[in-house]
Specification:
Structural class: mainly beta
Keywords: Kinase, Phosphotransferase system, Pyruvate, Sugar transport, Transferase, Transport
InterPro entries: Dup_hybrid_motif, PTS_EIIA_1_perm, PTS_EIIA_component
Subcellular location: Cytoplasm
Radius of gyration: 14 Å
CATH superfamily: Glucose Permease (Domain IIA)
Strand content: 35-45%
CATH architecture: Distorted Sandwich
Pfam family, one: PTS_EIIA_1
Number of strands: 14
Number of domains: 1
Number of helices: 2
CATH class: Mainly Beta
Main location: cytoplasm
Distance between the termini: 5 Å
Length: about 150
Amino acid sequence: MTTVTSPLAGRVIGLAAVPDPVFSGAMVGPGTAIDPVLEPTVAVAPVDGIVVSLHPHAFVVVDGEGHGVLTHLGIDTVQLGGEGFEVLINKGDTVRRGDPVVRWDPAAVVAAGKSPVCPVVALEATAESLVDVSADVDVKSGDTLFSWT
């Protein structure tokens, strides 16, 4: 079983509340989403593993069981061209849960007219394979979001 932890502090709102049909419809995969605290922060790795995809606005870490976890920092933030995001590691790096990945400012995302909501998605999973999915709670970076069986 893989425990997926929060990459940042905020309020867990669930995927259905994400203002993007690809995420809210769980087309990318099941999971949850966080409405982050609106202050400069660092998004951290939600699992131990290897960074297989890395962009200023999103990253994927694959754990030892082959479970890929996508963290997407805000909605439509790819349109910002990396502005306001600082990548702190490299694609291919091995990370431990809680290691810094991207420094960003959710308030700057809001100021740019984008949603700061952050989906955390279990790639290539089924909804039934996730247990104890958090919803409607405040989390700190590192708090458990869900377990993947």
